[in-house]
Amino acid sequence: MNPLVPTGVDVLLASAVVLHTVLVLAALVALALSADKRRWPSTVLLVALFPFAGPVIALIALRRRRHHPLAEIARTAPHPT
User: Fold this and answer.
1) Alpha-carbon gap, residue 34 to 81, rounded angstroms
2) Is 68 within 8 Å of 53 (Cβ atoms)?
3) Does residue 55 contact residue 24 with C-beta atoms inside 8 Å?
């Protein structure tokens, strides 16, 4: 076996690392662009603590919140002071 040629396991692990990095970056960018800043700590913890499921769940939750019928009302409503 040639040590310079990556094995199938090496390619699989490298692909998993790249996929995880893309998912984390996408989740963090979606979080930064979201209007609701109150959920930042919980979403960042979710992304950090659960390697693959966390970013996927965060992306789904952020997408659902953005397309929720009451989301536009919540964004345009005046903040109670």
Assistant:
1) 22
2) no
3) yes
Q: Is 36 exposed, middle or buried (0-12, 13-18, 19+ CB in 10 A)?
A: middle
Q: In the chain, what are the domain boundaries?
A: 8-76
* Pick from 29, 59, 33: nearest CA to 46: 59
pLDDT tens digits in sequence order for the chain, 81 residues long: 778 888 899 999 999 999 999 999 999 998 888 877 787 888 899 999 998 999 999 999 888 766 655 555 555 656 566
- What six digits make up the tokens of 55? 């970013």
| 58 exposure class (CB count in 10 Å sphere: 0-12, 13-18, 19+) | buried
pTM of the model: 0.71
**Inter-helix orientation angle 40-49/53-66, to 10°:** 150
As given in the structure block, the two tokens for residue 78 are 């005046």
